[in-house]
Amino acid sequence: MSGHSIPIEKTGLIIVDLTNDFLAPDGAYGRAGQGAPEIAALQERIKPLVDVMRAKGGYIISAQFTLVPGKGGEPIISPHLKELRPFLGKGDFAPGTWGNSLIDDLAPADLIVEKVAYSAFYMTRLEWVLRKCGIEKLVVGGIVTNGGVASTVRDAHVRDFETITLSDGSAAFSQETHETAIAALKPVSRIATIEDMIAEFDAQ
What we know:
Elements: E1 11-16, H1 20-23, H2 28-31, H3 37-40, H4 42-56, E2 59-65, H5 79-84, E3 111-115, H6 126-132, E4 137-143, H7 145-158, E5 162-171, H8 175-185, E6 190-192, H9 194-202
């Protein structure tokens, strides 16, 4: 996959889970003291690529993990997630809220998809939106590399999108986990840096 044949106007940058509830100090994870330095630094690293894509006509796509409110507004949370993240509660990652929006420094997104699991494709309208907008190439970054990023990249691959994974535009809760996940994606995705992609788009 050369990455040069599809123009930027048909390219989307999928930003996985870089939302206020994950990253902002006042978000759900920030209030609970959850995070990692590499994850915290991600929005600043990826912003130059977001700016270039906006300027040149590419699509910024925010894929946002969402906790769907159930009866009484209590979030519907899978048992395994509740066990891992017992601090999650009413109002966290709720549809349409500030917390469940793309982090302020990167907003606004051109397209927004609320997701209920790791992959941005699982039980969402993402594929339909991409086809309607004529998007053929996807650049994927965000959190976590071994979760939402990897699942989204694999699902894009089997749907025949040209797929590029950002090695320095993704992060996990440990560097070892991140590197293992990136290595495992090489059979299904081109791996590139933010600088690589900016240079390619600047050359178009």
